[in-house]
Amino acid sequence: MNNLNQNLNNIRARLACACEKAGRNPAEIAILAVSKKHSVDRIKALNLMGQASFGENYVQEALSKMVQFQDEKIEWHFIGPLQSNKTREVASHFQWVQSVDRIKILNRLAAQRPENMPDLNICIQVNIDREPQKAGVMPEDVMEMARAAAALPRLRLRGLMTIPMATSAQHDPMDSYRPMQALYLELINNGLKLDTLSMGMSGDLEPAIMCGSTMIRIGTDLFGQRPE
Known about the structure:
This protein is of the alpha/beta class. The protein has a single domain, classed as Alpha-Beta Barrel (TIM Barrel). Helix content is 39%, strand content 18%. It has nine helices and eight strands. It has helices at 4-22, 40-48, 59-66, 87-93, 103-112, 142-151, 174-189, 205-210, 220-223; strands at 30-34, 53-56, 75-78, 96-100, 120-126, 155-162, 196-198, 215-218. Strands 7-6-5-4-3-2-1-8 form an eight-stranded parallel sheet. Helix 7 links the parallel strand 6 (155-162) and strand 7. Helix 4 (87-93) crosses helix 5 (103-112). The longest helix has 19 residues, at 4-22. It is globular and about 45 Å long.
């Protein structure tokens, strides 16, 4: 799993195959490289291969990496749990936040986004399987969150994100991804201008693409196992 070029080509091939089966265009789906705990050198290597979007879970780790990418064109996504005391740093340094699950966080990001930066792209994290240990908005509360996000200055609501229940003999990922797709389309049908459904990871990108994902978040199958 250390051959980054081969790993990236493998993911692109899986994406293309999944799109062919789903009757979709591969250009509709972005690959987000989940780079938490991985080195700057490996991020730079993937970036040189054409991978431009990277996802980080920890604010301080991400900031320490960003200072080493002053000239490279990288789009940074924050995808981890976001505490109130970290919103200013996230609002000032990231292009996307995919893990918003409270109106309080939305308000802080809007107030703290520098006026000289483009609007901050936002995805609302949905706890689609209602797992008590996971972050995310319950499905019935998503509309309220989405309308709040769409109304705030310096934010651009792009769509929804989910981390589904782990695949097992008892749980088919399609059982998570179908209701996510329905929720996403419901928001669009209610007038919200969305273009991003962030779902699908290394182990289940195919069912995610079948259910309308527009962004897959890939860590292990790109970088290999994370260092401890």
